[in-house]
Amino acid sequence: MNILKKLFVQSMAISTSILFLNGISAVIQHLRGTDLVLQWYHPLTIVLVGILCAVPTILLRDSDTWDRKTFLLRVSLHCLALYAVIAGAGYLFGWYIDAESFLSVSVIFFLVYAFVWVSSLWLDKQDEKKINRALDAIRDEE
After folding, report:
1. How far is 111 from 12, CA to CA, in rounded Å?
2. Sign of CA dihedral 22, 105, 10, 7
3. What is the pLDDT of residue 142?
4. Domain range list for the chain
5. Taking a C-beta distance cutoff of 8 angstroms, is the pair 78, 59 a contact?
6. What does each C-alpha distance from 94 to 37, 83, 107 come to in angstroms?
7. Would the CA dihedral through 115, 117, 118, 121 be positive or negative?
8. What DSSP string runs through 30-99?
9. From 24's CA, which of 68, 114, 121, 141 has a CA 20 to 30 Å away?
């Protein structure tokens, strides 16, 4: 998958996941008797953070040539770097105001991180299958 397509897909997956999990969090808070209050700029900050968090993915290119230890180290550093971005953006944009809401943002981050990895791997596998089918079709014609 070319890098721009991968960045776009991951930006959309990250932003959509954050918005979806914030919706679930809002329902839970509503059922507990409190309401989640979003400022007018929060949806835009979520999209911005989605884009900012997709960019470091470039650093994970060529991961298929790494050994297992290098791969795990780089993914761990990637996760921690993105967590720092999210924590900083959350503080800057007022996504959390106390320890409980910070914990909620943290849980949402790790759920989104896992979802984006799973969806990216699935999409890569689908692209691989399409390429293999096209190659098989070319071979059959010859």
Report:
1. 15
2. positive
3. 62
4. 3-141
5. yes
6. 11, 16, 17
7. positive
8. HHTT------TTHHHHHHHHHHHHHGGGGGGTTGGGS-HHHHHHHHHHHHHHHHHHHHHHHHHHTS-SSH
9. 121
- Torsion from C-alpha of 96, 99, 103, 109, nearest 10 degrees: 40
Distances (CA, A) of 126 to 7, 46, 93, 104, 142: 17, 28, 36, 33, 25
Give the integer Cα–Cα distance in Å for 104 and 115. Answer: 16
Rg from Cα positions in the chain: 18
| Mean pLDDT in residue range 79-86 | 89
Q: What is the amino acid identity at position 118?
A: V
- CA separation for the pair 86, 49 (Å, rounded): 7
**What is the band of 83 on the pLDDT scale with cuts at 50, 70, 90?**
very high
**Rounded mean pLDDT of the chain?**
84
Q: Which residue's structure tokens are 């989605």? A: 50
- For the stretch 9-18, pLDDT in tens is 888 888 888 8
